[in-house]
Amino acid sequence: MRPTLLAxxxxxVVLAGCADKPAASAPPSSAAPAAATxxxxxxxxxxxxxxxxxxxxxxxxxxxALDVLHYDLKLNWAPNSKTLTGTAVLRIRPAADAAxxxxxxxxxxxxxxxxxxxxxxxxxxxxxxxxxPTAVTKDKxxxxxxxYHGRPATTPMPSHRTDTEPLGLTITKxxxxxxxxxxxxxxxxxxxxxxxxxxxxxxxxxxxxxGWSAITAGTPAxxxxxxxxxxxxxxxxxxxxxxxxxxYKKATGQGPRGIPLTYWYRDQTDAKMLPSLKKSPAFLTFLxxxxxxxxxxxGGIVLVDSASGMETQQMITMGRAVEKFDAASFEEDLLHEYxxxxxxxxxxxxxxxDLWLNEGWATYAQFLWEQxxxxxTDKQLEDYLRKTDAVQRRKLGPPAHPKAANFAESNVYIxxxxxxxxxxxxxxxxxxxxxxxxxxQSQKGTQQTRASFIAFVNKQTGRDFTKLINTWLDSKTTxx
Length: 480
Fold this sequence. Notes:
alpha+beta; Immunoglobulin-like; Neutral Protease, domain 2; five-stranded mixed sheet; 24 strands; globular; Peptidase_M1_aminopeptidases; hydrolase; alanyl aminopeptidase activity
């Protein structure tokens, strides 16, 4: 998530940090359920296999008994009636025996729900949960199809940050759409196992009126008429998906090693930001040098009516709702979100108590960029990190113990970045960046925890950094 700026005088330079980021389908038939007729080979979606766990911070979201392998979403947005019509086909591996299929979903009108071609007329949505009363057996995959329609609505953001809005699919004044959905909110536009530990593959097709465009996360898969298609062959957590619809213009670029980049913008306000977007190849080159090859086949940025930004996978969602555009600050935010493609997107935490594992790395990468850009010394960076770390620990507590009401506030950015600076100092640049590259490149597509990170660091370096890491993550005061 994009941090706001922390005004800190370092040799008369502001070092940016992180602050307080159609018509409806026919109704369900009352006819007797039909037997499943088609045997499905689920091996095509094996790469979407995860080990879901109950999230310790937001346990009401997600379902550890289900592992969604693949989402196939066919959506239609009608701006005049503000109606989203969808057909969601989910390939699901039950991670445990269960009496029903329970997923996160905003109360849309259900037009039809089937499990393996058998209609389930008693399926219902209540209190942001879709409950399909069909028993499932561990490791015996099923196909859930949900046809629905309705007007999108958001869900509250559990944070005191000043740069955030309600989560989920948001309708613009012009009748367009955009979404930010960390730590949850994907369920406001499709039925989802909305937790970070369940990564899945995606195929999405969005139909919009003539002259409009639709953008999602993933790799562009072509356009047919007014239908825009995207595919994600690399596993993605639901919070990293995005959807933007509007009268967009498109610019293209090319990153290191020929990585195709796409920039989506709309009016003159957005056009002022386009030169910064086009600096993406430089950002990626800087990050590849330190963390290894960019982990996805394409990249890009879409500008939306938000005050924040988000590391949505392969298609960063950046807010344009700023009082006064500052190119330098905006570009530092872009660098931060691109760093997340390695840390958070390629390698994702299993639960939100380890958000520091995303934000610490992305923030430290941002500080390294600023250090090089503004010619800051190691001592200046060290002094800034320690001073700010002390303030954040007093205000918000240690980074590995975030409170549910304080999602993505400054302690999970600054404090772990300070820890990584200590680790960098202890190892030296060569060994530190070798560690960082190995972490991403060997763990790509997985979900990780504090314990697995510490074990990896110790094995990779041949030294025991358990105490250093744990102290920085758990201490109520800045470690000596």
